[in-house]
Amino acid sequence: MLVADYAALALFVLLWVAYAWITGSRRILSRTSLTKAMAERRRDWILNSLNRDLKMIDTQIMGGLQNGTAFFASTTIFAIGGCFALLGATEQVDAILKDIPFIVQGGRATFELKVCGLIALFAYSFFKFGWSYRLFNYCTILFGAIPMTDEAREHPARTMAAAERAIQMNIIAASHFNMGLRAIFYSIGYLGWFVSPWIFMLASGTVFVVLIRRQYFSEARRALLNDLAD
C-alpha cells in the first residue's frame, strides 16, 4: 500500500467519526438535525395513539418499519456474499484492472485487503440492521402493553410510563437502523479506493457532504420543522 492509501483510509475513518459526532449532537450551527427532528415526530405519533382504541394504522406503521429493516439486513447478506465471491476471483479481477490505465495498482494483497474492508462495512451494517429489527419487534410488544383509552384515563401515570418505554425503544431502534444505513452510504465512497486513493478521498468527502446536507439543509428537514424553530 502507498502512503496515499493510508492517508485516504485515515480520512475515511475521520469522516465517519465526524459524521457520527455531528449528528449525535443535539444541535449544530443552531440547527436541529433531521434525525433529532424525526425522533420528536416518533414521540408525537405514539402519544397521539393514546387517543384511539383502534390501532390498526399503528400496527401497519410498526410492520413497515420492521419490513424495511429486514430488507436492508437481507441486502447486506447478499453484499457480503458478493464480496467473498470477489475474493475467490482475485486473479481474474486483477487481470482486468491491469488493462484499465487510470486505476492505481497495488497488487493482489492490497486488493484482497480492500475487499476485506468492504466486507467489514457490510458486516457492520448487517449487525446494526439485525439489532434494529429486533428492537422494533420489542417496540411492538411495548406498544401493545400501552393501556386502552378508558384505562388510560383512569391511570394516566402508568399509561405515560408505558408510552415512554415504547417511544424510547422506537427511537433506539431507529438509531441503529440509521447507523447501518450510514455504513452502506459510506461503502459507496469506499468503492473509490478500488480506483485510486485520491478517488477514495474524493468519494468519501462527497458522501460526507451529501449526508450532512440531508441532515441539516434538506427539504425533508424543512418539512419536519415547518412549524417549529430551526
TrEMBL record:
One Pfam family recorded for the sequence: DUF599
Protein name, entry field: DUF599 family protein
Record carries keyword Protein biosynthesis: no
UniProt KW Membrane keyword: yes
Keywords: Membrane, Transmembrane, Transmembrane helix
Organism domain of life: Bacteria
Taxonomic classification: Bacteria, Pseudomonadati, Pseudomonadota, Alphaproteobacteria, Hyphomicrobiales
PANTHER family assigned: OS09G0494600 PROTEIN, PTHR31881
Organism listed in the record: Rhizobium glycinendophyticum
Transmembrane regions listed in the UniProt entry: 70-90, 111-127, 184-212
